[in-house]
Amino acid sequence: MLQYRANDETNPVSVCDDILHFHVGLPKTATSLLQSRFFPEHKQIEYLGKILPGNSFPDTRVGALVHDMLRKGVFKCDVELNRRRFDEVVRPLMSKGRTVLMSFEDGTHGSPKRRAAKLANLKAVCGDCRLLITLRRPLDFIESLYLQRVKKHNTLQNHWLTNLKTLTMEQWLDQCWNTGEKAELSHLNYADFIIDWEATFGAENVCILLYEQLKETPGFFLDQICSYLGIESVHADEVIEGELVNPRISSAQVEAIMAVESSLMRTLIYRLIGRKPGKLRVDTCGTSGAQASVPPEWADRICQLTKPGHQDLAQRRGLPLADHGYPV
Question: Whole-prediction pTM value?
Answer without folding.
Answer: 0.88
